[in-house]
Each structure stands twice: as C-alpha cells, then as structure tokens.
Amino acid sequence: MCLAVAGELVSISEHADPLWRMGDVCFGGVLRQVSLACVPEARVGDQLLVHVGVALTVLEPEP
Amino acid sequence: MSRAKALLEQIHRITTQPWTLMEVCGGQTHALLRHGIDQLLPPEITLIHGPGCPVCVTATARIDQALTLAAQPDVILCSYGDMLRVPGSDGRDLLSLRAAGADVRVIAAPLDVLALAQRHPERQVVFLAVGFETTAPATALLAQHALAAGVSNLRLLVAHVRVAPVLDQLLGDPHCAVQGVLAAGHVCTVMGEAEYVDLAARHRRPIVITGFSAEELLAGILACLRQLEQGEHRLENAYASAVNANGNGAARVLLERVFEPVDTPWRGLGAIRAGGYRLRAPFDQLAIASPDQGSSETSEDCCPSGLVLQGLLRPNQCPSFGSRCTPDTPLGAPMVSSEGACAAYHRYQH
C-alpha cells in the first residue's frame, strides 16, 4: 500500500475549504474520485501520484 | 542500449568489493525480484529486505482487537485487503470471520469509510487504519472530515507506523550488516529529506531515496554504491520526479494536526520508540484505545518474521517457507502481504 498509482486529473470539484477539494482521476481508463487536499497546486491534465484515494504529488513531466 | 542495461554496466564497473544494501520498502522488494535485479547485480552485492511492509509489522494485539470488534453484530469492520488475511494470535483472520457471517469490508480509500458510516447510521463502523506515512495522510483526512461532518458512528483503530524511527533503531543495532540504505520513495514524497539527512549523518551510512521502476531501482543502487566506494555517507535523492526536499507540506500539516508520535510495538521487532502514530485531541474521540501502545511487549508466534524483517534470515532459509507456510496458508504476515518479503520470494523464483 506504499505503492502509489499514477493517473491523470480530468476534472476538479472546487470547494471553499481546501480539505474538501476533490477531483476525478483517470487510471488507465478507470475514473475515481480522489482527494486533492494535499495537492492544492494540481490542475486539470496533471499526472498525480495517488495513495489510497489521496493525491500526494504532482509528477514532474518526463524531460 | 537501454537505460537499465547502461545502469547495470555502471554498477558492475564501479563495484570493487562486497557491499550490503537494504531496500526499506516491501514494494521495492517485490519490484527487485519481479525484474530479477537481485540476479543481475554483481555477486559482491547483497540485498537485505527491510521492514517496509505495514501489514507485516502490525502488532498481533491490534489484529486480535480487530477480530474481537468484527465479531460484534452491530460492527462493520473495514480495512485494506491485505489486512484481512493476517492471522491473529489464535490463527484466525478477518476473512474467516467474514466467511462465518461477520460484516468485514475491503476498502481502497479511507474516505470511502465516511460514506459507509453515513449510509449505516445504525451500525458502528470501525476502520483498521494501517500503513506508513504514505497512507497516514488519508486517515488524517478521514478524521478531519468525520469530525467536521459530526459522524458519531465511526471509530478508528489506528495502527499507523513511522519509517524513520525503525530505521534509526535497526541501523543503531551493532549486529546490523547494512552498509547502505535505499529509502522508500513514496514515504519521502510525504516526509521530505530532513529525517533521512539526520539518519545518514548519525549512522554514517549513505541513504538514497529510491523509486519503484527497474530503472529507478538501479539508479538508486548505483548512487548508493558510488557513495560506498568513495567512502561517503549522505542523503541523496534518486527519485526527484516524485520527491522534493520538503516533502508534501499539506500532508505533513495534516499529519501533525491529527496525529502524535507514540512508542509502538512492531510485530517481530518489539517496541520502537516513537515508531507509530496515535490520534491527538480532538481527534482522539474517534479512537479505539490500543491497550498495547507504549508497552514493550514483543509478540511471539511460530513465524520468525522479526529476523526476516531485520535481514537476519532470508525468507527461503525459514524452515516453514514453501512447506507449512505459503501465500494460501500463511503462518505469518510477510507471506500474506503484497509487500511482504516471503510472498515476494515465493512468487518470483526463490
């Protein structure tokens, strides 16, 4: 469970409290609601590393 | 030539003497064996598989507590899939309780537990929360949401553990053969570099933050060997695509707000100073008390998992390996988990 899954952020549900900010992330065609509480900088199109439903990092694009 | 091949060639070129490295994370253990990297390294290199499997190190007393709770008719007990097959002290596991009628559910994300509690206000919903600093932020977020939403039928059985304190204890042991450490990349994604800079300096061993793909693992091994061959011992980040020096600020704030470090028993390893988390006020109103927290009791069972987790016994040297103990009938947690070293050996070749 320390292995994160990478997916693309396809839409964001904004919320006044950043703790409740959620997004739809596409994991190889499977859409899941993911918390964006820990990635306030995340934008649609970003690749996110997601652990147990919480995005923990925005991956740097491959050089 | 592929990048992996080039890294392997460099590793072979710079290695002049025997070295023993430890990869901390069970996910890395599985990847190393899956790709056969352990067979491709120079014969001088020994890999020791570290304690980074949260399922494996969850104290038996906590599993027993979950089993007792799950047996109560008004309780829905949730956890990650691997936890359901870990035997408690009497050999039973949560999956067998479910087969006997208990309401035990597998969840993939802690926030799903909140929705479950809201759907079943007449039931007590208990989340057995395990994992390192990678999954603890998700539990912290659940605690925040549960209090904010005023959900009164949700309780947390917290068994979260912290990586840096156990590494500190392992590296401080005079019997420890580890000369260089591959640190768990995704734990550092959350926690950043600071704890590991301290550990590298205090124990005078190189520590390299390492990722999980074949190329990332080889790059971590190469960086670690380079330091060893040159007599250096510092923290190096070989997984910069996912780890920055300060970690994830928002996740660390969540952890600090919701949890406090506590002395915690690790299955097979005994009590680790500050080796786990417990909920702090006001979130502790969600907690199910853990009678063993802070005690120094070591759990004893027929599985020598402690020796495996410290790298003192290879999984395939265990007398039960592959005979009495298999992934279908595990005697101990390292054979259960998708991150356990014994399961990795059983699945890939050894």
Averaged pLDDT of chain A: 91
Shape of chain B: globular
Strand segment tally of chain B: 11
Sheet with most strands of chain A: 5 strands, antiparallel
Class by helix and strand content of chain A? mainly beta
What percentage of residues of chain B falls in helices of 4 or more residues? 25-40%
CATH class of chain A: Mainly Beta
CATH topology-level fold name of chain A: SH3 type barrels
Question: What's the count of strands of chain A?
Answer: 5
Quick recap:
With 63 residues, chain A is an all-beta fold. Chain A has no helices and five strands.
Question: Would you mind describing this structure in some detail?
Answer:
The complex is a heterodimer of chains A (63) and B (350). Chain A has 63 residues and is mainly β. Chain A has one domain (5-58): SH3 type barrels (Roll), CATH 2.30.30. Chain A contains no helices and 5 strands. The radius of gyration of chain A is 11 Å and the shape is globular. Chain A starts with a strand and ends in a 5-residue tail after the last strand. The model of chain A has no long low-confidence stretch (mean pLDDT 91). Chain B contains 15 helices and 11 strands. Chain B has a 5-stranded parallel sheet. In chain B, strands 4-3-5-6 form a 4-stranded parallel sheet, with helices on both faces. Chain B has a two-stranded antiparallel sheet with strand order 10-11. The radius of gyration of chain B is 20 Å and the shape is globular. Chain B has helices at 3-14, 26-34, 37-40, 54-57, 60-70, 94-99, 110-119, 136-149, 163-172, 185-191, 194-203, 214-229, 249-258, 305-309, 341-347; strands at 19-25, 45-52, 75-79, 103-106, 124-131, 154-160, 180-184, 207-210, 235-237, 259-266, 270-279. Chain B folds into 2 domains: 1-55 and 163-229 and 302-350, Rossmann fold (3-Layer(aba) Sandwich); 59-160 and 248-286, Rossmann fold (3-Layer(aba) Sandwich), CATH 3.40.50. In chain B, α7 packs parallel to α8. Chain B is of the alpha/beta class and 350 residues long. In chain B, α12 (214-229) links the parallel β8 (207-210) and β9. Classes of the chains: A mainly beta (63), B alpha/beta (350).
